[in-house]
Amino acid sequence: xxxxxxxxxxxxxxxxxxxxxxxxxxxxxxxxxxxxxxxxxxxxxxxxxxxxxxxxxxxxxxxxxxxxxxxxxxxxxxxxxxxxxxxxxxxxxxxxxxxxxxxxxxxxxxxxxxxxxxxxxxxxxxxxxxxxxxxxxxxxxxxxxxxxxxxxxxxxxxxxxxxxxxxxxxxxxxxxxxxxxxxxxxxxxxxxxxxxxxxxxxxxxxxxxxxxxxxxxxxxxxxxxxxxxxxxxxxxxxxxxxxxxxxxxxxxxxxxxxxxxxxxxxxxxxxxxxxxxxxxxxxxxxxxxxxxxxxxxxxxxxxxxxxx
Length: 308
Hints:
84% of the residues lie in helices and 0% in strands. The protein has 308 residues and is an all-alpha fold. Helix 7 (194-202) runs antiparallel to helix 8 (209-251). The longest helix is centred in the C-terminal third of the chain and has 43 residues, at 209-251. It is globular. The chain starts with a helix and ends with a helix. The relative contact order is 0.15.
């Protein structure tokens, strides 16, 4: 009897872990769009920091990111337990914010192209006089950015597991929080040190085929590092419209129904491309509308403040 109970318990545990594994994979795929933008933004945040302080700054931001998620995960779990009806509206707010952030970047690049010029990987700006204050400001700014992106990741994950039992929600949200933090900041640490690795390889002295290969690899890394940063930024921007537009499309029946009807006859790549295109269009339109509303509100507030 005891052996049967133990086997049943082990079977339940195995089933739970299998469900958690599958749902964590699904949630990771859905949050991949935010991940690309998170990588680019955090790598840019440490630009201008001296080379010997890059990793300590990344580590400080990573710890702040864990604190952010330690706040956000319980809030998300409480929301799903006591106000499950609010999950979809909150998820759609997160999607609308993603679209707004993406469209705001496009508008800023078109209207203020010079402001986009900045230091990338391997292009460290001259350090300021007060390095300690500069580092603290960079860390605080990166943690604030991480809080917004982490909230989006947690809300998207919550939408994936909203119908699951409470324990599954806890494990999936906690797993995504840890995995995303380790993945993002591990990659950020690697990205910001790419130029140092390239310089080290280029400076290898000696003769022979191996040395020449190492030096050529170093030059290739130095050439590829800025391209990688731009590619990450572009991929993150596209993904913001795809993910944000997808959230909005799924949450609005008058959009979701017609899109499903259009893709019913299409299979495989054709259906995926049409769905992605529709989500991107919805995302860009939503981003333009939200940006217009925010800009209008800011102008009204500014005029009201001036009047008084």
